[in-house]
Specification:
Blueprint lengths: L2 H16 L7 H9 L7 H10 L31 H14 L1 H5 L9 H13 L5 H18 L6 H24 L3 H18 L2 H16 L4 H11 L7 H15 L3 H13 L17 H14 L3 H17 L7 H17 L3 H12 L8 H16 L6 H14 L11
InterPro entries: TPR-like_helical_dom_sf
Protein name: XRE family transcriptional regulator
Organism: Kribbella turkmenica
């Protein structure tokens, strides 16, 4: 592949996934090859990783300013800078849309393109810069509601409500990842109204899953458990596995250990129907994602050995998955569960190895739950029997550097 062809392929992929036009050309590729540019913007790095089928930036020879392990915010178009006001405003907008969502407004549209947009966003979430996907999700939501103000057959009305509901659920999930679970509640409240209007159980289940997640990251474990258990009434595909699994974590963290063990046993016996279409991304629970959730439940139950077993199995499944289907966001969280289990068992080297794979996460993908989880690992290094060990101190310091630059504070990337 020539430089020009590589540049064209990257720009084509970025346009397909973000609908943003980039001006990468063969001359810029030549600069990368010469080392004149050693740390291109987040969007270009994402595109190059995808087209060249590599897992991380180091395989491409890219080195962040300050050297490996230190990733400073960088200029460009794909970051979270200035998104705080947009996050809050978008939540207010979703609340304003609650009334029309509960009415029987109709619109005229074939919704195939809107559904394609939703599918593209879910499958590229945490694979490409978040801001264009956030903007696109809000645009899909707004377009669906505009169309609902017109006239169309009842089946298209339901399709439009479904599209709006999925877009709102995506906005809710992104709000949680960007550190605003309270804003997520605004999105998901209206998403539930859309799911009711569309009479779509799969959407109902994933709205409940997102509401669970918002409650969980506000330490409302009882509320999270209630959402998860209600969602199971509607779950059909892999949402069944996700909701059954997270329910066990919620119950364990609420101190209801007997119920948690029962829920965990049910989750492990759950089989996923293969005849239910899945959107992917956050709305897909694979066996490896479930194994990571089970490891979290066992950790909350004080069972570090079981945590280690399930987390290690989950990581192995992630590593065996095709690159194009690998959920790197969930994989990072499972690796940190692995680190926590190693620390509780006094195995410092194992914890260090597990965390090392997470420390290379690009700034734009350092979502708030990841920052929270890796901070828990840092806290455990101070409580472990190796607290004064130089390796433990080095691990703690590397995590402190990592958490200084969460995704919600990253500057825009080229």
């Amino acid at each position: 592949m020539s430089r020009a062809e590589l540049a064209e392929a990257v720009c084509g992929w970025l346009w397909e996934t973000t609908e943003t036009k980039y001006e990468l050309d063969g001359h810029y590729i030549a600069k990368l090859e010469r080392g004149a540019v050693r740390w291109p913007g987040a969007a270009y790095r994402s595109g190059l990783r995808y087209v060249l089928n590599v897992a991380d930036d180091s395989e491409l020879g890219f080195v962040p300013p300050g050297g490996p392990g230190i990733v400073d915010p960088e200029p460009g178009t794909s970051s979270m800078l200035g998104l705080e006001d947009d996050l809050v405003q978008s939540g207010d907008e979703s609340v304003a849309l609650l009334a029309p969502a509960e009415e029987s407004n109709v619109g005229d549209l074939t919704v195939e393109q809107l559904h394609t947009d939703i599918l593209r966003i879910t499958q590229n979430y945490l694979r490409t810069p978040t801001k264009p996907l956030f903007v696109r999700s809000r645009a899909v939501r707004d377009r669906a509601f505009r169309l609902l103000s017109g006239r169309q057959p009842p089946n298209q009305t339901r399709d439009l409500y479904a599209t709006a509901g999925w877009a709102l659920t995506l906005l809710g999930w992104m709000a949680v990842d960007l550190g605003r679970p309270d804003v997520a509640e605004s999105h998901t409240r209206t998403a539930w109204a859309c799911a009711e209007a569309a009479d779509l159980d799969d959407l109902r289940a994933w709205v409940r899953a997102t509401q669970h997640t918002a409650a969980f990251w506000q330490d409302d474990f009882a509320g999270a458990a209630s959402y998860a258990q209600d969602g199971l009434r509607y779950a059909r595909g892999s949402s069944t596995l996700f909701l059954a699994s997270v329910s066990a974590v919620d119950l364990a963290r609420s101190g209801r250990h007997a119920e948690a063990r029962e829920a965990l046993a049910i989750a492990k016996r759950t089989t996923v129907r293969t005849d239910v279409p899945e959107l992917g991304g956050p709305f897909l629970c694979t066996p490896e994602r479930a194994a990571g959730i089970w490891s979290d439940a066992h950790l909350a139950l004080g069972e570090a050995d079981e945590t280690l077993k399930h987390a290690d199995h989950g990581v192995a499944l992630f590593e065996a998955a095709p690159h194009s289907a690998r959920n790197f966001g969930s994989e990072r969280m499972v690796r940190l569960q692995l680190a926590k289990a190693h620390l509780q068992l006094g195995e410092l080297d194992g914890a260090t190895e597990a965390v090392a794979a997470v420390l290379s996460t690009p700034v734009e993908y350092r979502v708030r739950p990841l920052i929270h989880r890796i901070s828990e690992v840092a806290a455990l290094t101070r409580l472990s029997r190796h607290a004064t060990d130089p390796k433990s101190l080095a691990l703690h310091d590397s995590i402190r550097v990592f958490i200084r630059h969460p995704a919600s504070r990253a500057t825009p990337s080229k």
